[in-house]
Amino acid sequence: MTISDHPADRLAVRGIEAFGHHGVFEAERRDGQTFLVDLVLHLDAREAARTDDLRDTVDYGTLVSSVKADVESDPVDLIETLAERIARTCLQDARVRCVEVTVHKPHAPIEATFGDVALTITRSTTPPSPAGRQSNGVPS
Description:
The protein is α+β, with helices and mostly antiparallel strands. Helices cover about 25% and strands about 30% of the residues. It has one domain: 2-Layer Sandwich (GTP Cyclohydrolase I, domain 2), CATH 3.30.1130.10.
């Protein structure tokens, strides 16, 4: 069995709370609101388990700080855009094969009683195959 055959281990961080100014309405941009973020990172945890060394895994403390900064920075209209920003942050660590990001907007401006608004996206990185690389549109 190769590493690529090994099912990814999952590291979850749920309920990351951050205050942001995202939304399509002026009041959302002006007043802001609390957002919650859940992450599920797919990675191979065997090396970290073997070495018991933080350098061999994703430092989720640092990652949470980065995700919190993603929410607290530049306002966007849609939680889809925010989720995409967060996914890109998570995938910056080469050990993360795939990430599932859920952005909760529990105080969305909806004229009804509701429990939560949440969007979940899944993004992954796939290394390009040597046969599929192109330079200037010409196969190598």
